[in-house]
Model the fold of this input.
Amino acid sequence: MINVTKTFLPPIEEYTGWVQKAFDKFWLTNRGELVLLLEQKLKEYLGVDWITITNNGTVPLQIAVKLLGKGGEIITTPFSFVATTSSIVWENCTPVFVDIHPEYLTIDETKIEAAITDKTTCILATHVFGNPCDMDAIQKIAKKHNLKVIYDAAHCFGVNYNGKSVFNYGDISTCSFHATKIFHTGEGGALFSNDEELRLPLYYSHNFGQITAVDFYAEGINAKISELQAAMGLSVFPYMDEIISERKKVVEKYDRLLDFSKLQRLKIRPGTDWNYSYYPVLFGSENLLLEKVAEMNKNEIFPRRYFYPSLNTIPFANGEKMPVSEDISKRVLSLPLYVGLEENEIQMICDIINS
Ligand SMILES: *Cc1c(COP(=O)(O)O)cnc(C)c1O
Done:
């Protein structure tokens, strides 16, 4: 069976070696030695000044929206995973959708200003498939209208833009370390911010708002990651360069074998060092996509419709029509992409699509 992705697992002894350290210390959570060590390694690898790792990639979005959204309208993309929109609604803010660019698939920065009202508090955009938004344009708009910027960078582990990590842009960035993501801790995620005034509020938000057992910074939630998850992260981490270069090889094979006369590939924004996290292709029609999916399924191949449906159409979003995103989400399919996907398997997938 070939799924859209396959979780990278290190040799089990390497995982249990780290777990042993937690056992030796009788310490499983509350920012133990392994969590602190993983944060240190990630900071260096990613080139960021500040990180707080978390229990998943959704709670950090909720924390960011709670701190910066302030119950107002949040300009956001309809083309993302549902957590981007649900975090806004969950924190009692209103999502205001702006359509996407037809080739980059990120929020169309030229349409943002028209959506700003006096209730707008921030912009929450997704670097979808690890492809960065036009962050320079978004920054200019945010500055002009005094808005905050949050990036859902769930797909962006290892992505650089103009020579630095995308996590360094915006007021807050979040990442996911879910087992389906490129770097993972089973479940996990992270908060990033270059605004020193936001770091304490973010940090305390993820740990009940507690400074000490009896002293509170503000209200908070529990978004702490455990030592067992950090052990998984520490055992996957040494393989990151290899994971990215192996995925690059798969991407290059698809690029070579697919017939692009009837198919559109994701366009990566110039200036980006990409992480080869997904291989989305756009078919000419939804019917064609469904035909190809059925044929792949018959051959035990299970690509995924990332991302369908367009988030403006989900019941709790109350979104306006988003013609580009609605059209693209019906026609886009993420092909299998993982370390260990064999050449003959890629060939089989391409044969089905090209036929
Ligand atoms: C995976 C994902 C999330 C949520 O991350 P979890 O770790 O699964 O909570 C949020 N946004 C996007 C775009 C994602 O792909």
Notes: The mean pLDDT is 98. DSSP finds eleven helices and 17 strands in the chain.
